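Per reviewer request, we include the raw input and output of the structure prediction for the construct analysed in the revised manuscript.
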Amino acid sequence: MDRLAVVTIVGAELDLQLTELLSTSLLVQANRAMLAAGQHVGYYGESRTRSFRAVFPMAYAQRIGERLQATAEATQAAVPEADADLLLPVLSKREEQVDALFTKLFPDTVTRRTRISNGAGWRPASRPRDLARLDTRRSVKH
């Protein structure tokens, strides 16, 4: 099996900065959630196995992706129709530019499926991934 060790993000500078901030935050949250879930060992010790540690982040990431997609759709739906003609073409053009650059940089990308080999790693991720913070606002300290 090929191991991928590199992540490349393509987009505008602000998008890249926000993505880095959100990714780092989610990585910390996912790690904390996995460690907490790993403390609850099942009957066969399945929560401390390698497969548990491999599956948990995938389950976490899938749910985060679903939440981000729902947020994007809700944001688009919240734009008043009068403003949609002004805003959406700008966003569409930006998305087209990013897609074109991505295709140019990575013309041979493929989608791969994975098999879940540990149900204990999939289920515990459900609650923490629903509670994960997706905003990038920094708290203000007094």
